[in-house]
Amino acid sequence: MRQEVIVQFAPTRRIELALPAGTTLPAPDEGRRWLDEQFVAHDCEPLRASGKVLIADKVLALATAVGERRFAEDAAFGQAFALATLGALARPVVRVDLAAGALSY
Length: 105
Fold this sequence. Notes:
The chain is of the alpha+beta class. Helices cover 46% and strands 20% of the residues.
């Protein structure tokens, strides 16, 4: 089964983070923990005025904070991001559209 995260930076710029076939995803709580740690480490800000931060918000904020260059140059980070995102959301494919501020499955 295909497992990947697609981070769309602009209509013509995207990074595809495909995992090798047979990769075991982390448990949802492990994926959330990694996203939480990275959210704090990169000084990400909550997207909602209420301060409530959903997993989807963490994925969007983190991808925005690290930017296209980090994904392009740091394969280990990209793979860790993909693993954590897919594990936390329990989905095999996630599209992260930064311009629209939305995730789709």
